[in-house]
Amino acid sequence: MKKLFVRLAAAVLAVSMAIGVTGCSKTDVLDKVKKDGKIVVGTSADYAPYEFHKLIDGKDEIIGFDIAIANEIAKDLGVKLEISDMKFDGLLPALQTGNIDFVIAGMTPDAERSKMVDFTKIYYTAAQGVMVRTEDKDKIKSIDDLNGKKVGVQKGAIQEKIAKEQMKSSTIISLGKIPDLIMELKNKKVDALVVELPVANGYVAKHPDLTISDVKVKEDTGGSAIAIAKGNPELVEAMNKTLDRLINDKQIDKFVAEANEAVEN
Asked: Region 68-76: what's the mean pLDDT?
């Protein structure tokens, strides 16, 4: 009986310690952010006009309408914004390990991602486009025209899923950065790219040898939202409050227009 009691006591103690460790290991991101006086946003700054690098007064800056939104969030929280630039497919792992506090990168809150992280409300919805070389515009007018051809997409992005589901007779080439995909298209390593129209329009404005084709893809992407580590409802609520203000005041439309202008100039 005594041995049984000792075993039971040891088991209870082990469970209690496990609960205690689990409870202590969970970090409330909002509390951490306010304590540190800064919030770290993860993004992939190769996706103009959402987020991109631009030389301003001789200094390399990351700008775009996503970054403008992130700045508004930091302002409402009363903290400074710090930007961490990385490949798109590394963003959610970085969020889950606590290396960044939130992700804003034109990210679609699909079912698979929603299992890993929580999302705010949708803040922007854009149509999808297919970019080709200008010389091929009359040759590539439909998805059928892409049969047997190579189609480039950003690795881990919703466009990768779209291409795999809707262009099954094409070879899908996935790369981490949009500029690399643009070079592949220019160098005839791929025949087309699937990208969001605001992004495609930004590149076409600067590259006359590229254009938007007549190829239509199904619009089932659901728009863009901000990703936050699971278990932080107060932070999600705070960000939704900022998004409500920006949407109601038409500020996001203004940010998009300003970002597009910055891409073209």
From this structure: 98
